[in-house]
Design brief:
The structure is a single chain. The protein is of the alpha+beta class and about 300 residues long. About 30% of the residues lie in helices and about 25% in strands. The strands form four sheets. Strands 8, 9, 12, 13, 14 and 15 form a six-stranded antiparallel beta sheet that branches. It has a five-stranded antiparallel beta sheet with strand order 1-2-3-7-6. It has a two-stranded antiparallel sheet with strand order 4-5. Strand 13 (about 205-215) and strand 14 (about 220-225) form a beta hairpin. Helix 1 (about 65-80) runs parallel beside helix 6 (about 280-295), helix 3 (about 170-175) packs across helix 4 (about 180-200) and helix 5 (about 250-260) runs antiparallel to helix 6. The structure holds ligand Q0Z.
Length: about 300
């Protein structure tokens, strides 16, 4: 976790700041009397980027807008599977393009993760006993292998700065009840399968993704952001080669520079990472824009 990224959250007229995550900020709309409304939230995506568990001091211009627009595009393409929390993308000028007004939900206390390719924590579990989140997998899989079908691998929602822990499926059932657990499991794997059907045609593999659901009365609603490079591992399809860690679509230039001798930084030192050089910033921005443009077929302004 970063030593300190203590820039105050932005002032947004008509909204009260509620909470800040590593790279996003949450606001509540104010009613006519200046009271925060309890039924809606404004989700604001910043240009902050994380790498090696640090929030970098150097912003990536337009990152927040690219991720917000990508998430909105995916919500439309998932609407036949699950309703979503979006109320409006018509937001104050101060956060234009990078904020969404959403319905405030009763969030489920589970990080809903699905994996379509084996890497990271899923690979570690598989190497131990051939299972991932209780699901038996074929022998012989390696880092980057495609799984026979997406697997639900839920995790706990850890406080900021701590890592989410794998959560046995039985613990999800105990938290939210078996019927709701089965519903979010099936939705999560369906969202990743749909994402990969669409992304594969555009040269991007989505290794895994984390989604959040909330309840609107009895209805399960897809919340937060969806199928962005911050919530998912995007891999360039043409470089996919099982057997070793895959390059990251969005973070590779940053990781390569931070771990090169040029940065003078040791990721194990506990020190905050240095500011990024402008060419690394420009190349990274270009990768976010490229992901958006390839997936959506739209031009990012
Ligand atoms: C999302 C988060 C942050 C952005 C709470 N529709 C909703 N209803 C109730 N709560 C949430 C949502 Cl999306 C909710 N988060 C995560 C934190 C910025 C999103 F600082 N927390």
């Amino acid at each position: 976790m970063s030593a300190m990224t203590s820039s105050q959250p932005l002032t947004v007229p008509g909204y009260a700041h509620v909470y800040s995550g590593k790279v996003r900020d949450l606001y509540a709309p104010l009613d006519e009397s200046g009271t925060p409304r309890k039924d809606q939230l404004l989700l604001v995506a910043s240009d902050r980027m994380s790498a090696y568990d640090f929030v970098l001091d150097t912003p990536i211009p337009d990152k927040g807008a690219v991720l917000t627009q990508l998430s909105l595009w995916w919500f439309e393409r998932l609407e036949d599977l699950v309703p979503n929390h979006v109320v409006s993308a018509d937001v104050p000028d101060e956060v234009a393009g990078r904020a969404v007004l959403v319905k405030r939900l009763a969030m489920l206390p589970v990080e809903c993760v699905a994996r379509a390719y084996l890497t990271g924590g899923g690979l570690t579990e598989y190497r131990a006993d051939g299972h991932v989140s209780g699901v038996a997998l074929p022998d012989g899989l390696v880092d980057g292998s495609r799984l026979p079908e997406p697997v639900f691998t839920p995790s706990t929602k850890a406080p900021m700065g701590e890592h989410d822990q794998p959560m046995p499926y039985a613990a999800v059932e105990a938290e939210i009840g078996a019927p709701l657990a089965a519903r979010v499991r099936d939705l999560t794997t369906s969202i990743l399968a749909r994402g990969n059907e669409i992304a594969a045609e555009r040269g991007i593999l989505i290794a895994d993704t984390k989604v959040e659901f909330g309840l609107d009365g009895d209805d399960v609603v897809l919340a937060d952001e969806v199928l962005t490079p911050d919530s998912s591992r995007f891999w360039p399809a043409e470089l996919w080669e099982p057997g070793h860690p895959q390059p990251s679509y969005d973070k590779q230039y940053v990781r390569d520079w931070l771990t090169s001798s040029a940065s003078g930084w040791d990721k194990e030192s506990g020190q905050a990472p240095p500011d990024l050089p402008e060419d690394v910033v420009a190349q990274t921005r270009a990768k976010y824009v490229e992901a958006y443009e390839r997936l959506t077929g739209r031009t990012f302004s």
